[in-house]
Amino acid sequence: MLPLLPELGINSPFVKKTSSVAVIGAGLAGLSCAQALRAAGVEVRIFESAPFVGGRCATRLWQGHLVDHGVQYFTAQSPEFKKELLTRLRQFRPIISPILDSENKLVTSPNGPRFYVLQGNNYLAHVFSHGLDIRLNTPVESISFRPTEIECLGENYGAVVSALPGPQTMRLFGLAQAPVEYDSCLVALFEYSGSGIGKSSECYARLAAPNNAVFLSSHCENHKAGRIIGNKTVFIVQATPAFSQQHLDAPPEKYLPLLAMENEELWRIPSNHRTATYGHRWDYARSLPQSRSRTDPPRGAFLCGDSRTDSTVEEVWHDGRKAADEVLAYLAELNG
Ligand SMILES: Cc1cc2nc3c(=O)[nH]c(=O)nc-3n(C[C@H](O)[C@H](O)[C@H](O)COP(=O)(O)OP(=O)(O)OC[C@H]3O[C@@H](n4cnc5c(N)ncnc54)[C@H](O)[C@@H]3O)c2cc1C
């Protein structure tokens, strides 16, 4: 009698070898990983819980404006990423205006110019998703690991990649601890009547003093051409991790007035010019490098994105490709 399937070794001729890959999460890391796998001829399917791709590379049509409420800008320092942008996406532009700190000093970008996408930064994810098999509105909460296959939502895969933030990867893979912890971040959008209002024409963004308990930075979206319609000025304010944590479960009307007050003081704007507000909550905003710990995912399971690299667009894109190389090496070994 033939032994039962789980008792077979991976080199057994009775085992059907599966080489398709499931990627969990259609943020930039997951999309980059899936594109690299697809380019290598691997069958790959992405599962995404949201009704859209991009994750934290998010753009919102708000009050008729296109507003980036996640990634503000990205760099393109490496030749590979630059080439990818030039090949797939032509409509990205540098942000010329400076970022100033609380003492009005220039905040230089160590990784070169800051870029944005004309159609909204989320369009970057849209472009990276071309040709991929993506199941939207499909959260993956658990995975079954078998000796030669991995079951995900009733289908079998040779390997699975989690492109989710660290704590979510921990739950998905049943790890003892998260590969890294994250800050949460409340983001506020403020619209004011009048364009170039207050000191907003002086710079693209201002950083708060390091001891500011309420907010980290305020970016003026008017410095991205074509984004803001009519005679308006729009700001995106990021709250500090402590403030965000404190107000994470509060309704936006509780914390928006506090952030609005700080914003108006920062840019010297009279509060009676404010015409609209909006609050967004990021539970997992940026990974905290100092909290990184070594984790050993189960056999056939891989991670990518800022659960193991820095929280920047360029870094997570590279890490998606790195994860694809690791998966390819594993599949080659699995399939002899
Ligand atoms: C407010 C803010 C501002 C930022 N500004 C910048 C910036 O200016 N420049 C920069 O370079 N970086 C910035 N970052 C960091 C950058 O956004 C991230 O590093 C990067 O987008 C992470 O990409 P990712 O693919 O690793 O993760 P994510 O974008 O988080 O992708 C994970 C995906 O998984 C999906 N998902 C979650 N749970 C499940 C599940 N159970 N099943 C299936 N799918 C699931 C999510 O919906 C999401 O689409 C910012 C981040 C925040 C929050």
Overview of this protein structure:
It is a single chain. The strands form 5 sheets. Strands 6-14-15-16-13-17 form a 6-stranded mixed sheet, with helices on one face. It has a 5-stranded parallel sheet with strand order 8-2-1-12-18, with helices on both faces. The two termini are 26 Å apart. It has helices at 28-39, 79-88, 122-128, 166-173, 241-247, 252-267, 313-334; strands at residues 21-24, 44-47, 59-62, 65-68, 92-94, 99-100, 115-117, 133-135, 144-145, 150-152, 155-157, 159-162, 182-193, 205-207, 215-220, 232-239, 274-287, 301-303. The chain is α/β, with parallel strands linked by helices and 336 residues long. Residues 1-17 have low confidence and may be disordered. The chain is 24% helix and 25% strand. Bound molecules: flavin-adenine dinucleotide. Residues 24-30, 47-50, 55-57, 70-74, 139-141, 163-165, 168, 185, 187, 238, 282, 285-286, 305-306, 311-313, 316 line the site of flavin-adenine dinucleotide.
Tell me the name of the CATH homologous superfamily of the largest domain. Answer: FAD/NAD(P)-binding domain
How much of the residues is beta strand, in percent?
25-35%
Shape, principal axes of CA atoms: elongated
Q: What is the name of the CATH class of the largest domain?
A: Alpha Beta
Sequence of secondary-structure elements: EHEEEHEEEHEEEEEHEEEEHHEEH
Q: Structural class of the secondary structure composition?
A: alpha/beta
Strand order of the largest sheet: 6-14-15-16-13-17
Helix content: 10-25%
Distance between the termini: 26 Å
From the 3D structure, determine the CATH topology of the largest domain: FAD/NAD(P)-binding domain
Unreliable stretches covering 5 or more consecutive residues: 1-17
Please tell me the overall pLDDT: 93
Strands, count:
18
Kindly give the count of domains: 2
Major sheet description: 6 strands, mixed
